[in-house]
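PROTOCOL LOG
Step 1. Enter all chains and additional molecules of the complex.
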Amino acid sequence: MSVISVSHLTKRYGPVLAVDDLSFDVHPGKVTGFLGPNGAGKTTTLKILLGLAAPTAGSATIGGAEYRRLPDPLRQVGAALDSNTFHPGRSATQHLKVIATAAGIPHRRVGEVLDQVGLADAAGRRVGGYSMGMRQRLSLAGALLGDPGVIILDEPLNGLDPEGIRWMRGLLRSLATEGRTVLVSSHLLTEVAQTVDEVVVLANGRLVAETTLADLTGRSSVVRARTTDSTRLADVLLAAGIQVRLVDGTTVEARGADGDAIGLAAAGAGLPILELSRHDEDLETLFFDLVNDKQEVAA
Amino acid sequence: MNAIVRLARAEVRKLFTTRAVPVTVAIAAVVAVGSVLIDAAVAGHPGQHAMGSITETYQMLKFGPVVVMAMLILGILAAGSEFRHRTIIPALLTTPQRARLFAVKVAVIALFGAVFAAVVFGLGLGTVTGVLAAHGFHHLPAAVGRMYLGTVIAGACFGMLGVALGAITRNTVGAIVAATGWALFVEVITLGNVAPSLEKWFPVGASIGLTNPPDPGVLTPAVAGVVLTGYAVAMLVAASRTTIRRDIG
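Step 2. Run joint prediction.
Step 3. Record the structure below.
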């Protein structure tokens, strides 16, 4: 059962279509990567999901309800959209206590989350003197304050050093293992590839992929087959349900295909296989191809 | 605890966890007390009224405009800085019901404005009383109580006006410059010289009817209170419409 549900979501800013008929679901117990290049519509979608912006059409719900209708929203949803949502004159403790007071969360949670994100020693310092990594951690602390079941983070790895990235990955995985719903947006698949279980990929406001990372990774491998008649081989493989691309008169490529199946299909048609090899494209290239409309991945 | 009460406590906490409030209170107090002492120092000199005269005492008590301008700025900061520092995002994630968030902020600032005005006017009044006593005078003019109450009301109204301006402009510096520029150049200098009978119907001119001694050239306190409250309500309605509908972030 999905916890976050986006259904035919559209957002238009004047002539600009920022989100175009977007639909996807996010499930509990997993880390879902919400991916796409800058300007793809990720942050706009998250803002609509969190009640900060109104949709032009469609809906975005959490637990079946719009954010603004959630009773005690911070105890159900924790969100960190930006690492610069603090008054520079307040300390981390003061900032979180303002939120805790308004949300009716006991102030002892402030110390607990600051400890959890590694800011206990800097809790009394003014946020204006924090590094970007510290601000990211404070933003995350705010998201964890209500101990919510749903956590939504926009580009949480920005500004973190390698140790911080490693820490964040571990934290996100542990949150998902606890059964929480974790949605993490990023503009780089390689950045979150070690963390996410499922991916939702956006480009130009539209959905281009909603699948598991394993499936996406599988599609990064390409089987190349060289024969005497690539056109006939392509027809044979298409008839067998294998999607291929003609490279030249002698070579075909099939993304995410099984080499054995290609070999057997060729043998069945009496076509000699002169070369059968597997190449793995890096995830970054795969991602760029996805968002630049060079391929689509069905759910 | 009731959600409204929690929200109000959070708004109070916001006020007292930055330097804006203590610095503004300190400056307003220094200016109010300082103006009394300066007036007292020149009392009785050629061209000045004698110490102990009703006119001189009223002159020493004319620090109400300091209070209202300070509250205008604090009100602008209370709302505008939420957008400037983007703390409006965590505020709305905590309380997605924007009308409630805005209404509580306005109520807290109005109440704070009243208390702020009472404290600063009280300091100034205490200084006046002390100065008079030092010169052997132990009575205050009849309108002092009305001026005190009028300053408290004006403080609340200008706090609300400030919140409205800060929410509409989402730009603290722009709003402060525009507000003080309006008060000084449009109302005091331009209208005050060109059309003084018109000036008293604008916010700063109306506030003088509340904060200052009786004068035939200003609105009566009751009319001034209605006019000022009307401006505050009108601005708050405009601000609430934009705040509630606007996409954030």
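Step 4. Note key features.
DSSP finds eleven helices and no strands in chain B.
The radius of gyration of chain B is 19 Å.
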